[in-house]
Amino acid sequence: MRHVLCLGWKIVIFVSLVLCVLAFIRIQQYSEPMTSPYSTALPRRSRVLADQFTGNPKIAFLFLVRRNMPLDFLWESFFENADKEFFSIYIHSEPGFVYDETTTRSPFFYNRQLENSVKVAWGEANMIEAERLLFEEALQDPANRRFVLLSDSCVPLYNFSYIYNYLVGSPRSFVDSFTDKKDERYNPKMSPVISKRNWRKGSQWVALIRRHAEVVVDDETVFPVFRKFCKRRPPVDPTRGKNNLKLQKQHNCIPDEHYVQTLLAMNDLESELERRTVTYTSWNQSATKMAHEAWHPFTFSYADSGPQQIKNIKDINHIYYETEFRTEWCSNNSTLVTCFLFARKFSRGAAMRLLSQGIVGNFDVSALLKPPP
């Protein structure tokens, strides 16, 4: 009996040791640095506490661009009538690209590029890494109280004063966030750090209050998991036959459509959000199932950007979320308002029309025919 008990205890101790080793390995998977060839360490710099700031609140316009700003002439018109005390500009472009008189027509963008930018690829975690770098840089100015993420094809739909009062007047962040019950992007390997219950989807073009921007920048738990398990879907390889289906399912995340939404949900902050974006996108939705899976944003041309088309966007006052059977009536401090302040994707011709016809602002289009200085 003594030998049996001794053997039993040895088995229990052995199993316990094995479980401890497995648990340790599991923890190490999430705690070890996850580096990529494009990554740089996110700087950690001291910030002025929110309750220590006094003065005029500013909006930080955060431009996430490929290289240059093709619509700089439109934004020049937008910013020139605004008081510089009420806004700041930050640009994440490709590493090494400098904004000066040789690369942009607008002095507003001179030297506004980040010095620590990373190379970005669509569908990869370095996209949200670039976003985090923008938020981090903008947080260094204690006057920045609202943080708006924009692309190089975005246009403002209203003048600066209207957009400023709209954003600063709300105590909430504007984050398009919903649960997609048909979603297949969640990777079970993200558990237990990210549970399926907190997995959210939405537009990457967010407008955050300062406290939520700090949550994004200070995150050291969720981002590493996205970087490890949220990969870009590989291109279809005809030589792999049926194995293509397996590969496609393994890499189907698109992190920029999930990261901020999921992070805020995990921090129980959804009650502090207007769960919608303020940036309008028109999706090219095809009828066939195959094409349906490859939706992409519709690009506005000169012909698509007349007064009536812009009015149609401005008149939108609600958004329907089919997967949640939820209609989000657009409000600001319990007052019904128009949903969108910006729109994308606009071509140069479309932006010229917005300015020449006074839809966004007054502008002499002939100035664009001259080469930059």
From TrEMBL:
Keywords annotated in UniProt: Glycoprotein, Glycosyltransferase, Membrane, Transferase, Transmembrane, Transmembrane helix
UniProt keyword Transferase present: yes
Record carries keyword Membrane: yes
TM annotation in the entry: 7-27
Topology of this chain in the membrane: Single-pass type II membrane protein
Cellular location(s): Membrane
Principal subcellular localisation of the protein: membrane
Pfam family of the protein (one): Branch
Name this polypeptide is given: Core-2/I-branching beta-1,6-N-acetylglucosaminyltransferase family protein
Organism: Penstemon davidsonii
